[in-house]
Amino acid sequence: MFASVAFRRLGRSAWAVHSVARFGAFSHHHPMNLKGFTEQECQGLLDLAVLAMYADGHLALVEDARVQRLLTAMGCDSDYDRDKHYDAAVSRVSRHSQTVEVARAHAATLAQVFTTREHRRQAYDVLSDLAASDNQVAPQEGSYLAVVRQAFQM
Questions:
Q1: If you ran DSSP here, which 8-state letter would residue 12 be given?
Q2: In 3D, which of 48, 154, 39, 50 has the Cα closest to residue 111?
Q3: Rounded to whole angstroms, what are the CA distances from 140 to 19, 53, 112?
Q4: Which end of the chain is more exposed for a tag (fewer CB within 10 A), N or C?
Q5: Rounded to whole angstroms, how far apart are CA atoms 145 and 98?
Q6: Global model pTM greater than 0.70
Q7: CA separation (Å) from 85 to 54, 64, 94?
Q8: Percentages (nearest 5) of helix, strand, coil residues in the chain
């Protein structure tokens, strides 16, 4: 279900740049503002984003570029820092990806780290944007977002 670290290391950066140029991934989006997010909320958002990326079983390059943008907003300015945090998120989330039910239960657990309504809304907006970034929201992604929305009590 999860992309291998080898795939990411071999081609993510070049392909992400290609996808941004090809699809205009960032041209119409506001900068992410994670000011005030705790470290736990940032980690929870990253884990939720990784789960969202793989919810439909298809990794779109533009989705990977969005996660890289999220990592930059979290303060990961170097490729090394982004790779380190991304690898850690994949490692944390992969053990919860064996079935759709386990992944959804983990998403609901992760959603509990967001303590304010505003942070839950911002996190949901990031996830919704990520799911729609490849110009389609697959039924599995819509179902995943519904689980998060319910956990966020939205």
A1: I
A2: 48
A3: 23, 11, 21
A4: C
A5: 18
A6: yes
A7: 17, 13, 14
A8: 70, 0, 30
At residue 23, the pLDDT reads 34
> Long-range contacts of range 33-40, CB-CB < 8 Å, 24 or more positions apart?
33/73, 33/122, 34/73, 34/74, 34/122, 36/119, 37/119, 37/122, 38/113, 38/115, 40/113
| Closest by Cα among 29, 98, 38, 143 to 46 | 38
- Match 């303060």 to its residue by tokens: 75
Q: Closest by alpha carbon to 45, among 31, 66, 24?
A: 66
- Output the average pLDDT for the chain: 79
Tokens representing 76 are: 């990961």
